[in-house]
Amino acid sequence: MPKQSSSSYDVIIIGAGPGGYVCAIRCAQLGLKVACVEKGKSLGGTCLNVGCIPSKALLQASQKYEEAQHSLGAFGVTVEKVSLDLKGMMKHKENVVSANTKGIEFLFKKNKIDWIQGTATIEKAGQVSVDGQSYQANSIVIATGSDVVSLPNIKIDENQIVSSTGALSLSKVPKTMVVIGGGVIGLEMGAVWSRLGSEVTIVEYMDKILSETDEEISKDMLKILKKQGINFKLSTKVMSAKTLKTGVDLSLESATGGKAEKLKAEIVLVAVGRAPYTNGLGLDKIGVNFDVRGRIVTDETFESSVEGIFAIGDVIAGPMLAHKAEEEGVILAEMLAGQTGHIDYNLIPSVVYTHPEVAQIGKTEQALKEEKVSYKVGKFPYMANGRARAMNELDGFVKILADATTDKVLGAHILGAEAGNLIHEIAAVMEFGGSAEDISRICHAHPTLAELVKEAALAVDNRPIHT
Ligand code: FAD
Ligand code: NAD
To answer: In the CATH hierarchy, which fold is given to the domain comprising 8-147+275-345?
Structure first.
């Protein structure tokens, strides 16, 4: 049960997602007296309750089902009568979520952080009220995250037309599902329900999926997902959706306009992005400034336009990623404790947890071309790696981009099994300003997928060993 011991703090943090709870723990480690206000029934925010963690639990579980049905035969493992226990799968997801959120409760107790349960409003700098009760703090941190974006004429009812939250808890596998948006959520949740037997169609406004991703990877990923049975309608927008007893009738149009097309689905998932969430905080009354996208404007110390009020995570500019929010939480806590902190926004890795995975860090080739930077490319395919062959994971490649003159690594893009783990070796090298040659001179254990990274680094200098 949440409990508070006082009404006066060094720091009050609003929101207990990855930004807020991590900031609270780091503040406490540094000796600050800290409280965290969270309106939800459990700690952990979007990420732990209805985001990163439950989606990965379902991705993992649905991939096992997929493998038992289609992939184990190739390893000489025969599995007969594979069947789906959707309730069991959902139970797995709920257990994972509960273990994680309870873990944060434990960490709050361990670090003597007060959890004030309720909805916070900022009265003025230094004063927060939670459901009528006032609390004082030298610094206030807003970490209230983001919420789903909806579309005009398409009302999310979390029943037939769902957001990612509804898509994480469907009680049966829909025969057909239309996903609006071919971004990260669309691909991850589309993959889950497609693996479980739904006929999934992803409708994307742009002419490609994962529009921020390296173009080569976006193209290859599209081919792979199509091979896996997911249908795509690119350069298409959904104009309206009508719910009927028998499903949802959608009206589509080409992104450039033209003749309307109809599509029917049992379930529609709206996954067209998320927007910063500041409802109920009372920020307009106290003069906190927002940018055109509704994000709180902060300076390099995360301070808003009002002295003593700070903001981190999805509610400010930058990628809406849990680890970005966490980094900001740590740095802000250290600055509030009188230390210094630094974050390099160019070095925030991002991962799409489909199968195969997509992972990237640093610049894309498109960005380097636009910036007129002269660069070299080293590419190495999974099919030329011994361990990948043993794993039957032949799709994909590692691509490293390095400065043509200095050889400094400028970006890396991976499509393939374990991409999300492999990217971190490159992240470490980039943090230290290392070169492709630095990576290629590190002895990599054999046989591992990590050798793909070494070979791609060698390929930057046109001397991979195994292709
Ligand atoms: P949030 O996690 O959104 O937390 C904000 C908290 O503030 C909430 O708990 C909310 O209840 C609380 N709050 C809001 N207003 C108030 C108030 N007035 N008073 C009290 N409490 C309040 N990111 C990744 O890096 N990897 C992933 O794999 C990943 N998967 C995702 C999958 C899905 C389906 C979704 C939706 C998101 C995913 N994300 C992922 C994004 C990630 O969840 C967010 O970037 C992250 O949660 C942002 O953290 P935050 O602390 O800024 O905000
Ligand atoms: P997104 O921005 O990744 O993708 C939204 C997609 O919807 C875009 O491709 C956009 O072109 C398309 N779109 C917009 N309007 C449309 C319309 N009217 N018709 C058709 N397509 C339309 O957003 P998301 O997938 O909703 O994810 C939200 C946030 O959550 C992202 O910022 C992401 O960083 C985060 N997230 C991260 C992970 C991860 O790290 N693995 C997983 C899930 C979510």
So the answer is: FAD/NAD(P)-binding domain (3.50.50)
